[in-house]
Design brief:
- The structure is a single chain.
- The chain has a four-stranded antiparallel sheet.
- The protein starts with a helix and ends with a strand.
- By secondary structure, it is of the alpha+beta class.
- The protein has one domain.
């Protein structure tokens, strides 16, 4: 009878260790997926910020207005939502270079205009 209780205790301990390892691995998987999703959100936000900069730069070029005072088409560092963007214009090559930054993620868009 004592041996039976000991066997049940060992079985319960093994079962708890098994379930604990499954729980730990699931927690690790969920955490790594959460990090990947957050990184993708930051990438998209940085992309959208750079696109917003391009749109603002093209607006200034088309209308002839210098809304932000950086020169027509050039936008100084502008904070928008969780990040920022900046646009530089090169009138010689007719290009706009926009940089969107969110946390450590940076996206660059280069656009030619006429």
């Amino acid at each position: 009878m004592v041996k039976e209780r000991g066997a049940a205790l060992i079985t319960a301990i093994i079962l708890l260790l098994f379930l604990g390892s499954i729980g730990a691995s699931l927690s690790s998987m969920v955490y790594s997926r959460l990090l990947a999703v957050n990184l993708e959100v930051d990438r998209l936000q940085a992309q959208y910020l750079a696109e917003a900069g391009i749109a603002q730069g093209l607006y200034e070029i088309k209308t002839g207005l210098d809304v932000f005072g950086g020169g027509r088409g050039s936008i100084p560092v502008t904070v928008l939502g969780p990040g920022l963007y900046k646009v530089d214009q090169d009138p010689k090559s007719s290009t706009l270079v926009a940089i969107g930054v969110v946390r450590d993620v940076r996206r660059v868009i280069v656009t030619k205009y006429e």
